[in-house]
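Appendix C: a fully annotated inverse folding record. The material below is reproduced so that readers can follow the format used throughout the book. The structure is listed first as tokens, followed by the designed sequence.
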């Protein structure tokens, strides 16, 4: 796993160094870097939302098959595969984007927590200690403002994602746990943010802002897909 993280963190470090070379301001560099990386990941988020919406659309048919073949698992599996083929739905479509994202997220985390482990540029050695706004040293933790901002945006983003996934029976079964995580995870982010370098917390905060914007866009996409499906059913 460490090798994979390094394989991803090193080229991301090159990008970070390149942007810093243009701007000569590490705080702004982190913001631009975050927006660029999140923008590159947008197609994966869109694919995940489309898959989730597709699962919600065929959920009634899945439930009907489960009731009909409750005592015949083998036939149920065959019928389920036939349904997926008929609806052109890939049950792994929602997992694949997440699997691709995870190594990238770990690589980013490793890079921004310990930049000099993955960046050989001498200029970056001083850059990570630059001040930005009220933060005197971006390599040191900001104890309150950034962690709280990161926690709030985490809550908003998590809540949006949870709302988008309503209608999926599996998510409905996990609803109590997801509701608990909706409040617990932001608190964890605040707690961890108080010990992480401020540069990493900036990445998390800005990344959440971009994700919230993505969620608004993807929610419109999901509604449009649902309207299209309803029109087809009426025909």
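Designed amino acids, in order:
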């Amino acid at each position: 796993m460490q090798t994979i993280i390094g394989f991803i963190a090193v080229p991301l470090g090159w990008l970070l160094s390149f942007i810093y070379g243009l701007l000569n301001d590490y705080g702004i560099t982190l913001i631009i870097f975050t927006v660029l990386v999140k923008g590159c990941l947008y197609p994966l988020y869109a694919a995940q939302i489309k898959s989730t919406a597709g699962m919600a659309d065929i959920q009634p048919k899945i439930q009907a098959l489960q009731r009909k073949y409750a005592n015949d698992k083998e036939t149920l599996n065959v019928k389920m595969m036939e349904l997926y083929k008929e609806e052109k739905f890939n049950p792994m479509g929602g997992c694949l984007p997440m699997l691709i994202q995870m190594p990238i997220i770990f690589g980013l985390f490793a890079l921004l927590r310990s930049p000099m482990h993955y960046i050989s540029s001498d200029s970056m050695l001083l850059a990570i200690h630059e001040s930005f706004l009220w933060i005197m040293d971006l390599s040191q933790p900001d104890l309150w403002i950034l962690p709280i901002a990161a926690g709030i945006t985490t809550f908003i983003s998590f809540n949006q994602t949870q709302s988008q996934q309503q209608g999926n029976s599996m998510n409905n079964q996990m609803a109590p746990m997801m509701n608990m995580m909706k409040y617990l995870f932001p608190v964890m982010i605040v707690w961890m943010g108080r010990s992480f370098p401020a540069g990493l917390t900036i990445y998390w905060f800005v990344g959440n802002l971009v994700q919230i914007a993505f969620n608004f866009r993807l929610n419109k996409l999901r509604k449009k897909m649902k309207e299209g499906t309803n029109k087809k059913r009426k025909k």
